[in-house]
Write a structure and sequence with these properties.
Blueprint: H1 11-19, H2 24-34, H3 39-43, H4 51-63, E1 67-72, E2 75-83, H5 85-88, H6 91-104, H7 116-123, H8 125-139
Antiparallel strand pairs: 1-2
Helix pairs in contact: 7-8
């Protein structure tokens, strides 16, 4: 089944086949940086993902072992999603997208976030990436 998800042998194209849609990296970013864990958390986010799309993306990310699905200890009915090491390994890409966006999209998007996080990234990108990963791992 997974073979059908890839267009060709190119590593970049293959990565884009999995995380290059409109939602996958956003879901990963929400988990990594915003602490979202449940279906309800994702649905209530400002990005406003449709429930059917969210379901299919979560399933696909789970299929490729980027996230794992478990249950909340206090509520066995609620699914909880956690990034695997493969998912956490996308942190530098998410940070690079932030830098690229800050450097290249501000002229088109005047409301683009301009806060402390961007200044920290500019100051020491590697340390910022390390901190995101450490903070995420503390919460899981």
């Amino acid at each position: 089944m997974m073979k059908n998800k890839f267009r060709c042998e190119c590593p970049i194209t293959s990565a884009i086949d999995i995380i290059g849609d409109k939602w996958s990296l956003i879901i990963i970013k929400q988990m990594l940086i915003e602490g979202k864990k449940t279906f309800k958390d994702f649905i209530e986010s400002e990005e406003a993902i449709a429930t059917n799309i969210l379901s299919s993306r979560l399933k696909m990310l789970e299929e490729f072992k980027i996230i794992i699905k478990g249950k909340l200890p206090e509520n066995k009915k609620t699914n909880i999603y956690t990034l695997t090491d493969k998912g956490i390994a996308l942190t530098p890409i998410i940070v690079e997208l932030s830098i690229w966006s800050d450097n290249n999209l501000r002229e088109f998007h005047s409301d683009l976030y301009q806060g402390e996080q961007i200044e920290i990234i500019r100051g020491n990108k590697e340390k910022f990436i390390e901190n995101i990963i450490e903070n995420y791992k503390k919460k899981i």
